[in-house]
Specification:
The structure holds two protein chains of two kinds.
Chain A (H helix, E strand, L loop, with lengths): L1 H7 L7 H25 L6 H16 L13 H26 L1 H6 L2 H18 L10 H18 L3 H6 L1 H28 L12 H12 L3 H11 L3 H31 L4 H33 L9 H18 L4 H19 L2 H32 L6 H29 L6 H9 L5 H9 L8 H30 L11 H21 L4 H20 L9 H19 L16 H4 L5 H9 L4 H21 L13 H4 L4 H22 L9 H9 L6 H11 L15 H9 L5 H22 L5 H22 L3 H8 L5
Helix pairs in contact in A: 2-4, 4-6, 4-16, 6-16, 7-15, 7-16, 9-10, 9-12, 9-17, 10-12, 10-19, 11-12, 11-20, 12-13, 12-15, 13-14, 13-15, 14-15, 14-16, 17-18, 17-20, 19-20, 21-23, 23-33, 26-33, 28-33, 29-33, 31-32
Chain B lengths: L2 H5 L2 H11 L3 H15 L4 E3 H5 L10 H8 L15 E3 H8 L11 H19 L6 E2 L1 H12 L7 H19 L12 E2 H7 L5 H4 L11 H8 L1
Antiparallel strand pairs in B: 1-2, 3-4
Helix pairs in contact in B: 5-7, 8-9
The chains are: A mainly alpha, B mainly alpha.
């Protein structure tokens, strides 16, 4: 135990927060160490604890009359398995948390390395306690539970465009590259083994086991690649090349693995076998894709009908993809390919069908699962290293590591030479280096090695040791140095900026333009076929899979809606429109770009300071009508019906409206100057009250009483203390179209601000502010309404006074 | 028409190769296509392009044809548009769609990017006043959406407005309420499309692109 704390401590010395995090970790490690020994005895087999539990339970039954009723009893076995699982997950999550509390450490060492170290420590502790280490990275657990979330996350959020544009290159690396690696490593290893002296154990190894080992060790691992590449933020092209390769080489690995395993058992290989192997590869790869596509299609079709039961929408994504994975595994097809295909196929249709909230849920769940899985995998890798039966052979291990590196470099350089002849955007030497260097090996290789039959492969121990060494070498040495190298070589990084609408317009524009130019040149290339496919998709598939109007919605409009949605949420969260979200930190408004400004509203605006009263009246009127409209649309909330999402209802001109609001905000500020009183911040208590009372400057209690008849008028505007968080939700239950969640989030934001402002000027608020108050209510009011249920017809008239 | 035979000789292409950077084979291929489109005439007219069946579904058909007949895309400082263009002009327009090669230096790449962006800019800026006004932009978006079924005109307008607003706010962050953003200048246009990496995206695969075009031109000379 002291050794564990000692090695963890230096990184966080002198810091409060990291230390606290570390303390937590240490406590957890202690807990883990003390609990596991208890459980480990029963963990290899699940039945004994159950048996014991049953036995115990039956005992009191016999002595029912004699024994007193046990008030408190301990039955650990009863909960052992789920409890231990939960503990592991908790450990993993806390570790992850801990590392991010120490920014200095996590900036130098990749998370994956640290996790492996943690795994080593935990494994060491278990060993020290003299207990048996549970077979954590057992192939079943790994392939059926831990791997799918990561792959699904990767598949669902796969950047389709760059992936498809580089598909040729990716396939080349994944198929030819992996084959080359497998045979090069396997063949040379065999050669090395053969030149060993007769009596050594290496000499006895035959060619087929060597090739099998080569095929296990040659595949680039998606988990390791993801873990490292996500931290170095490399440009999209390189990322998709390395990552795509790691995903697609699965088919090759699966086939080679089964092939060689089979042949090792049989002992001989014929030409027919080779041909069968190739056919098998095609079947495994294409079959996997087909299975995935079918499930993806089904998922999309299902999501077409979920509009009434929004809460289970996200589940379909997970269940269908998992089924796809399992179905593919059932036939020994490539499960990874199936998952990728499933995710990629369903996503565009899913996104069109499901609600915005469901989409967020899917995103978070996938990210959560995949990151927990990833963390667990690396920790387990560490534990398994400590545990595993090892047989260290210097020659074999060193040769393997060197061969892996050499094969990768030769493979990449050689293949790039060929690929560059066909690529339009050539791969530079730097790119090649990063691709070669990014070829990390990981837990998949280990699990495959673990799967080997030790009767058939007497050298399984040595293989496992070598595999672990290669994994450690690539993850630690390459994983840690790749970041500095990327910076040293000045490899182009990923742009962090969000996609702008102009970029989206021009992406589409470019697509059509290039298709058109190709057509004029009479050359039916890439763009031509893509266009054909798109048109087919739009004409038939979308209509079939997407419910309602959105099937006809072009991509650009969908993008536009999404962007509006995001900005609207940001706007609401930022507190009503005075402070713009960082995305658009400018004062430019529609007015500035509108070519012709009709004079009427303008003069009205200009005249506003002079006659604030009339203006105010006008605004108030609009607000009232707003309130009424909102109330008409209120619906009751129940657990199974999520609120109608604004995203689905189409916020056709929300963005413009938002800018109008900002404009209005500005004008109100001007107006306030004329009123010679300091402008009241829109979130000040006065404002809230004013908003609630909509014009009448009532104080706290009456407002609350009024709530009854004004229920839901502005649920988010009213909360004075953090404890009163339930107040808005109650209102929601009555009438608001917004879910309690969203309301609470907004409240959180408002509350934070309001409390600050309370301190500053809480008591200074005087009735005069009330005059500007109602006019300001317009912004949040309108936003709320737009978010919950925008009615285009209503908006048009209400906006007229401000800007046509 | 008799001239077309003398033009097909390799050394006749030398001039075109230097000007446009295409390889002999590419020029030959394009020449074949050109003659096919024009019906073996020396020049090509709008009607010739209009009748390409594959273009019928392209929402940008009009813009593309206009761009091909646009004098601004001829690397000369002329403005206006042709009624008919010859093969050389055709090649000049097509040369905007050449991909960069591995040997392209960063400066050349930058120039290439500018040139490609200028082509796009000219497609938007129909009246050649150096800015894309809101009306012009709206037109572009409308056309872009024109083939995707029934779209309310207001939506297209909204998108164009939002896009314009975005340009204005990124380039001129602080504007007084009564100031007026006239339109997107080329500099602003460049700025907003910085993220698109035009130099590596705006290209098509001309047949026989495998032999890097520039190199091929030099080796035969």
């Amino acid at each position: 135990m002291p050794s564990g704390t000692g090695s963890l401590h230096p990184a966080g010395t002198g810091r409060r927060l990291p230390e606290r995090g570390l303390l937590l970790l240490v406590v957890l490690v202690l807990l883990e160490g003390s609990v596991l020994p208890l459980g480990a005895a029963g963990s290899p087999d699940v039945t004994p604890p159950e048996h014991g539990g049953g036995h115990k339970a039956s005992d009191p039954g016999h002595n029912f009359t004699k024994k007193a009723f046990p008030v408190l009893s301990l039955d650990y076995h009863h909960i052992q398995l789920p409890f231990e699982i939960a503990l592991w997950v908790l450990l993993a999550s806390l570790m992850k948390l801990g590392f991010h509390l120490i920014p200095r450490l996590s900036s130098i060492v990749p998370e994956s390395c640290l996790l492996i170290v943690v795994g080593l420590l935990v494994g060491g502790l278990i060993k020290l306690a003299g207990e048996e280490v549970p077979p954590l990275l057992d192939s079943k657990l790994f392939f059926l539970i831990l791997l799918p979330p990561i792959i699904l996350d990767a598949g669902y959020f796969l950047p389709i465009r760059p992936f498809m544009e580089n598909l040729g290159t990716i396939l080349m690396f994944a198929v030819v590259g992996t084959l080359w690696n497998a045979f090069f490593i396997g063949g040379l290893l065999y050669g090395v083994c053969q030149i060993q002296p007769e009596h050594s154990s290496l000499h006895a190894i035959e060619l087929l086991p060597c090739l099998l080992f080569g095929s296990i060790i040659s595949a680039v691992d998606p988990v390791a690649v993801l873990a490292v590449f996500e931290e170095i933020h490399i440009n999209e092209l390189l990322h998709i090349l390395v990552f795509g390769e790691s995903l697609l080489n699965d088919a090759v690995t699966v086939v080679l693995y089964h092939l060689f395993e089979e042949y090792t058992a049989a002992g001989t290989v014929t030409v027919v076998d080779c041909i069968l192997g190739m056919i098998s590869f095609l079947v495994v790869a294409l079959g996997g894709v087909l299975v995935g596509a079918i499930y993806g299609f089904l998922a999309a079709l299902t999501s077409r009908f979920t509009s009434h039961v929004r809460v289970i929408e996200p589940l379909f994504v997970f269940v269908y993809s998992y089924m796809a994975y399992l179905s593919a595994e059932m036939f020994h097809l490539s499960g990874i390919m199936a998952l990728i295909a499933c995710g990629a196929v369903m996503r565009p249709y899913m996104e069109a069908n499901i609600s915005h909230k469901s989409h967020t849920t899917i995103k978070y769940f996938l990210k959560m699962w995949s990151s927990v899985s990833e963390t667990l995998i690396f920790i387990f890798l560490g534990v398994a290293t400590v545990d595993g039966p090892h047989y260290w052979n210097w020659t074999f291990v060193t040769v393997t590591v060197v061969l892996c590196l050499v094969a990768r470099v030769i493979g990449v350089v050689g293949l790039t030479f060929i690929i560059n002849k066909f690529r339009i955007v050539k791969l530079t030497t730097k790119d090649q280096f990063i691709i070669a260097y990014g070829g990390l090996r990981g837990a998949i290789a280990f699990s495959l090695g673990f799967l080997l039959d030790s009767e058939l492969f007497p050298m399984r121990k040595m293989f496992l040791t070598a595999i672990i060494t290669v994994i450690f070498f690539t993850v630690f040495v390459q994983g840690m140095t790749i970041k500095p190298l990327v910076e040293l070589l000045a490899v182009k990084k990923k742009q962090e900026a969000k996609r702008t609408i102009n970029e989206e317009i021009h992406t589409q524009f470019l697509d059509h333009l290039l298709t058109g130019i190709e057509d004029i040149c009479g050359h039916y290339g890439h763009h031509h076929w893509k266009d054909k496919l798109n048109r087919f998709n739009k004409k038939y598939v979308k209509k079939f899979l997407i419910a309602g109007e959105r099937s006809k919605e072009p991509q650009l409009i969908a993008f536009y809606h999404k962007m509006e949605m995001k900005q609207a949420i940001e706007l609401v969260e930022s507190g009503g429109g005075v402070k713009m979200p960082a995305a658009v930190p400018s004062t430019v408004s529609m007015q500035n770009i509108q070519p012709k400004k009709p004079p009427a509203p303008k003069t009205g605006d200009r005249a506003m300071p002079a006659l604030p009263k009339g203006r105010e009246e006008e605004i108030r009127k609009i607000l009232r009508s707003n309130l009424q409209r909102t109330r008409q649309r209120l619906r009751s909330y129940n657990r199974h019906t999520l609120v109608i999402d604004p995203f689905e209802d189409g916020l056709s001109d929300l963005l413009i409206k938002k800018h109008k609001m900002i404009e209005l905000e500005k004008k109100i500020k001007q107006m306030n100057n004329y009123l010679t009183v300091p402008a009241a911040p829109p979130d000040s208590p006065t404002m809230c009250r004013a908003r609630l009372a909509s014009g009448r400057n009532t104080d706290f209690t009456p407002a609350q009483q009024q709530k009854g008849n004004r229920a839901g008028a502005d649920p988010q505007a009213y909360s004075m203390k953090p404890e009163s968080g339930s107040v808005p939700s109650i209102q929601v239950d009555l009438a608001s179209p917004q879910s309690p969640d969203s309301v609470n989030v907004m409240d959180e934001f408002r509350r934070a601000k309001r409390e600050e402002e309370d301190e500053e000027q809480g008591l200074m608020m005087k009735p005069p502010h009330g005059q500007s108050g109602p006019s300001k209510t317009g912004e949040p009011q309108k936003m709320t309404r737009c978010l919950s249920d925008p009615g285009p017809s209503a908006d048009e008239e209400e906006d007229e006074p401000f800007l046509p | 028409m008799g001239a077309s035979h003398t033009r097909t000789e390799p050394n006749e292409f030398q001039d075109l190769m230097d000007k446009t950077g295409f390889s002999v084979e590419q020029i030959k291929n394009l020449r074949k296509r050109f003659l096919q489109l024009s019906g073996n005439e020396e020049t090509i007219s709008r009607e010739n392009l209009d009748s390409i069946p594959a273009l019928a579904n392209n929402p940008l058909k009009k813009e593309i044809i206009n761009a091909i007949f646009d004098k601004r895309n001829q690397h000369e400082s002329e403005v206006g548009s042709f009624q008919e263009i010859g093969f050389e002009q055709f090649l000049m327009v097509m040369s905007h769609f050449r991909p960069p090669t591995l040997k392209t230096t960063p400066e050349e790449k930058e120039a290439l990017r500018k040139e490609k962006l200028r082509f796009l800019f000219n497609m938007h800026d129909t009246d050649n006043d150096g800015t894309i006004t809101l009306d012009e932009y709206r037109k572009v978006v409308e056309d872009l959406l024109s083939k995707s079924g029934a779209i309310e005109p207001a939506t297209a307008k909204g998108i164009a407005d939002a896009a314009m607003l975005e340009v204005a706010s990124t380039n001129v962050p602080h504007m007084a309420p009564d100031e007026f953003y006239e339109g997107i200048t080329f500099e602003h246009f460049e700025q907003i499309l910085k993220g698109l990496e035009m130099e590596t995206r705006m290209h098509i695969r001309f047949l026989d692109v495998g032999t890097a075009t520039m190199r091929c031109g030099r080796s035969t000379s």
